[in-house]
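Why do we care about 3D structure at all? Because function follows from shape, and shape follows, mostly, from sequence. That is the central idea of this module. The next example makes it concrete: a single protein chain, its amino acid sequence, and then its structure expressed as tokens.
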Amino acid sequence: MNPNRKRILEITTTGLFMAIIIVMTFIPNLGYIQINVLSITTLHIPVIVGSVLLGPVGGLILGATWGITNWINALQYPIEGVIFMNPLISVVPRIIVGLVVGFGSVWPVLKSDSKNKIARFFANTHVRDVTLAIVGTMTNTVLVLSAIGLFASTIAWPFSQTFTVIVQVVLSLNGSVELVSAIVIVPIVLAALRRIRK
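And the structure:
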């Protein structure tokens, strides 16, 4: 592909995924699906898909977009989103998700001609897509739960230790649903997008 055309495609793809993340954040029950006490996010899916396609720089941008929109959304609805008013909980973990998936998408490709058997195994497109869906989702869940444990007490609304534990348990349950959805959806969407981009 012509370098200029490739660059234009990358910029366009980045902008498209940023728009998807913004729209999903602010349309009720699209990016964050509320089911009783559960608030299941679907935003990790476009972030993971976009980061796989765009690499580390795109992953950084998409992760930051997710985190910043989550933070803004929490400021708009402080009762429901009080925990995510702290950017160390809402923004930083999401940036790391984009970076981890972005770097994970290019490493096996760079190493695929080497004698590294693990890299050659993950160079298989489907294996890599499923693995990055798992890694991206787990990175988000683990980092957000860890950040809540570390930084929840710094939020203006005082948290009791019991409340923090309850929130962590609920988010852990959310994470299980989010993991399954990512494993199913991410490889299908990536396969379709790759066919379109050819």
